[in-house]
Amino acid sequence: MKNPNRSTFNLPRLLIVGCGDVGKRLLPLLRGHYRVFATTSSPERCAELRALGAVPMVADLDQPASLRRLAGLASTIVHLAPPQGEGPLDRRTRNLTAILPEHARLVYVSTTGVYGDCGGALFDETRPVAPRNPRATRRVDAEGVLRRWAVRSDSTLSILRVPGIYGAERLPRKRLEQGTPALIAEHDVYTNHIHADDLAAIIVGALRHGKPNRLYHAVDDSNMKMADYFDAVADALGLARPPRLPRAQLQQVVTPALLSFMSESRRLANGRVKQELGVRLRHATVASLLATL
């Protein structure tokens, strides 16, 4: 029987670390260009990844011994795995860099949360980081670990700072159905977005055109406050718009984790993604997707 993967054997190898939803959207864009290996910590996902065209690798970033099989496997890496859920340091990224090769190309998907609250300011990638919660602090740590690895190993690193990822199946339906309140306009914050398919395209752009040790804002052209986003999604899904409360009242009824997302306001410029990576956004604004619903 002819092996359907035989034609990929001579292609350059690419490793996806943490192949979740975005990784699965990325796989079709890599077909024919790379032989793709994809990690998962769940053995039951191997059949799914294989069906999507990847070679599954069972590995757990919390278990360094499980990463030994990845050492030297590929010189092109897409790092999609988030840090662990506690502590100031990203131990997972530290474990990963211990097995990465020299002279590699790596794209890391970070978060716009590293900037903290910016008072609604519009800015580019030259703004210093100022994380305000442990989740963002771990991301800053991961970026630093990877920068040092890139210099030490003479590798090319692209860091994509990513906001809220959305898609037709990644909308806040449950929140709207539960009637979770939003902020009144004068207390509301600016929020940033990227469609999951566009993020996959930006990753490909970074693999092809990313400059060494360069930051990129992987955001779309939306210019929305958070409650306006919820209103737009509610209208598209035929759901009730959320009630709006002043911040003092809101913090009494939402979780601290949710409140932290509603306490940081920023607008990120995306010129580098368009000009340096040559990406044309399929969904330039949230409204583009919502109109199809």
UniProtKB/TrEMBL annotation:
Q: Which UniProt keywords apply?
A: Oxidoreductase
Sorted alphabetically, which Pfam families does this protein's record hold?
Epimerase
Q: What InterPro entries has UniProt attached to this entry? A: Epimerase_deHydtase, NAD(P)-bd_dom_sf, NAD(P)-dependent_oxidoreduct
Q: Domain NAD-dependent epimerase/dehydratase: where?
A: 16-216
Give the EC number: 1.1.1.290
Domain of life from the UniProt record: Bacteria
Q: Does the keyword Kinase apply?
A: no
The protein's matches in Gene3D superfamilies, at most eight in alphabetical order, are given as: NAD(P)-binding Rossmann-like Domain
Q: Which major enzyme category is it?
A: oxidoreductase
The molecular function terms of the Gene Ontology recorded here are: 4-phosphoerythronate dehydrogenase activity
The answer to whether UniProt assigns keyword Transferase to this entry is: no
Would you tell me the protein name for this molecule? SDR family oxidoreductase
